[in-house]
Amino acid sequence: MSQIDQVLATARSLQLAGKTPSLALLKAKLKSIPMPVLVLGLQRFKALSVNELDAIEATFSPNQATENTPQVDSDELRVMRQQLKALQLAYNELALRVTKLERQD
């Protein structure tokens, strides 16, 4: 699948998910594709007829587009919360040690 085909398929899948394809959404989904290719692909997508749109094979279903992104975000959020708790514990321990050292002087 060429880069233009990837842009067209992603734009179609966004449209099927109820979103209006835009450069920002396409760039977020297709990080490795250069901006000029995204612009050209979006222009071609907007010029397609209904029949041509139906012929485009979407790279993923609309359900995946809305379900996968929050899952990734919630996993990342869970990891970040665990890291934050560990950092807070370490900070509190260090603050106690500093306080004890300051009292010794």
Describe this structure in words.
There is one protein chain. This protein has 105 residues and is mainly α. The chain contains 5 helices and no strands.
SSE map:
Blueprint: H1 3-16, H2 23-29, H3 35-47, H4 50-55, H5 62-104
Helix pairs in contact: 1-3
What's this entry about, in short?
With 105 residues, the protein is mainly alpha-helical. The chain is built from 5 helices and no strands.
Continuous helix count: 5
Quick check: average pLDDT? 83
SSE run: HHHHH
Q: What is the overall shape?
A: rod-shaped
Provide the β-strand percentage band.
under 5%
C-alpha Rg, in Å? 23 Å
Q: Largest sheet, if any?
A: none
Distance between the termini: 70 Å
Number of beta strands: 0
Structural class of the secondary structure composition? Answer: mainly alpha
Which bin fits the share of residues in helices? over 70%
Low-confidence stretches: 59-70
Descriptive labels:
105 residues; mainly alpha; 5 helices; 79% helix; rod-shaped
